[in-house]
Amino acid sequence: MTTTTPRIVYLNTDNIKYNTDATSPAANNFIDEELKLLMEQNQQLPVCGPFLEKNENDEMKNLKRRLAHNLFSEVKMGGYFFPKKCRSNHKVAILVPYRNRERNLAVFVYYMHTFLMKQDLEYRIFVIEQAGGELFNRGKLFNIGFTEMMKYNDWHCVVLHDVDILPLNKGILYTCPPYPRHMVGTVFEKSNLTYGQYRNFFGGASVLSVQHYKQINGYSNLYWGWGGEDNDMYWRILSEKLQIVSYSKNLARYTSLPRPESPRNIYSLSLFFLGNKGQVVKESNAKMDSGNGSTVDILKNIEPERFIMVNKGFPVCGSMMEQNNTNEYNKTDNRVKDNWISKVALGGYYNPKKCRSRHKVAILVPYRNREKNLAVFTNHMHPFLIKQQLEYRIFIIEQAGKEVFNRGKLFNIAFVEMMKYNDWHCVVLHDVDLLPQGDRILYTCPTFPRHMCGTVLEKAKLTYQQYHTLFGGVSALSVQHYKQINGFSNLLQISQIPIVRYNKTVALYKSLPHRGQPKNKYRYKLLAFTMAKYKTDGLSSLVYKVIWTKLRPLYTHILADVNPLREKITDVYSNMF
């Protein structure tokens, strides 16, 4: 008895040609004349009825037997199928990234054809194989598959499918949805173990319209190895304010085929939280097929209303101290821990949904080359701040170039830029390597400047106490006071504004491991001139250039050139002293 090999389109990445013009003459070479004629005839047929209207009657039983015995006579060359007696409402491209999974692939294509044909879809299965020995790049293979599939048909939607999972319920429809649909609810592993797909995830098997896939700029091309690209995709969809529809976990049951483990991407968390180099959809105008970095998305003509959740009709939120002694606070604490990431809007913005906050707080964080610290910082700070019912946004201000780090100037730049987003009441000046360790450390707007960092817990349980003339680490000032002192770098006593400090037993912070910045050997001389120069050195003399501003999932990221005039630092100091 002869066997028929599965009919699949293989795209080897060595021979990929990035031609996105589906109307080009070359595109027609993929479809033979006989198939063209069949497709034209199919357009004259009545539209297929909804799949769910079909009951388990004799006709369906006959169809199952026919599929089992005669599968490959129904499927055209290239894994293409369309109903013969009706015209499908759904033209679906199934994209499957692949490498070295021969057994999985053989099971997958046989099973999926029998499953999909029952739904009266017009579909084609594309298997995109990665050549070479580099780490597997699943996201980029999806983008390649999407680009190439448009040469074969005017598809309505695309299903992004792993080769090692199979749907177990006929109620899982592979039709084209109006919104992005995550189709995997529960996966049955070997030994009857199961796992539920977690919330901020869009992997396994998902479907989007062609329009939506283009709108979110496809997958990121940066995730080499296992992990991270599906979380990144989830945020791309939310960035475009698209609603994600998910099947019930009881319905969306899949089984997992045995497979070898792929090498993990050790940078996946950093890429996800940092939106590395503009690959979050809001930040890239690059085509999906380029993979050569991306252009930047500079925010122009910013309107604060775009970034502010309107909640003026709500009652004012209660104070943090009023909540601490109530059961409601404990419930809020648990809810925040379980579900905080879905509450944070793009750009790291949050405001309470059931009340109007008393405090509009901008968190400013100067930054350079601290990817791990930043990932930990944002994950710690958002749950911490949400519990305090603040309206806040986290701004990460990064210094471009290789010049000596200028923390004070970065604070000043961020202060100027933050005013484009909201009418903030106060600003918190925060180092990226310090994390608050107690709920009594309030990030509310103070009447007087507040130094918030009392005791810092270092590694090996060593501690150091912040000395009384310092206003660093973590501090909060009203917008009015920051302007009054002309920003950094100035001591507040000169403006005769009192400084409030937390008790050292309350203001506990943990220090993250980090490399120290080169010390400024002129710092003591500069401090001696503070009283003479503070009115002219600060906001009033600020010169900088914003290279780009990007809305990351957990923060607003500003890259700035702090020395656009290319002044030599030694010349500046020699003119002063």
UniProtKB/TrEMBL annotation:
Protein name, entry field: Beta-1,4-N-acetylgalactosaminyltransferase bre-4
Keyword Transferase in record: yes
Biological process terms in GO annotation: carbohydrate metabolic process; glycosphingolipid biosynthetic process
One cellular component term from this protein's GO annotations in UniProt: membrane
Family to which the UniProt record says this protein belongs: Belongs to the glycosyltransferase 7 family.
Domain Galactosyltransferase N-terminal: 68-177, 330-446
Species the sequence originates in: Manduca sexta (Tobacco hawkmoth)
GO molecular function: galactosyltransferase activity; N-acetyl-beta-glucosaminyl-derivative 4-beta-N-acetylgalactosaminyltransferase activity
Keyword list, A-Z: Glycoprotein, Glycosyltransferase, Membrane, Signal-anchor, Transferase, Transmembrane, Transmembrane helix
Pfam families referenced in this protein's UniProt entry, alphabetically: Glyco_transf_7C, Glyco_transf_7N
Keyword Transmembrane helix included in the entry's annotation: yes
Biological or metabolic pathway of the protein: Protein modification; protein glycosylation
Every Galactosyltransferase C-terminal domain range: 196-257, 465-491
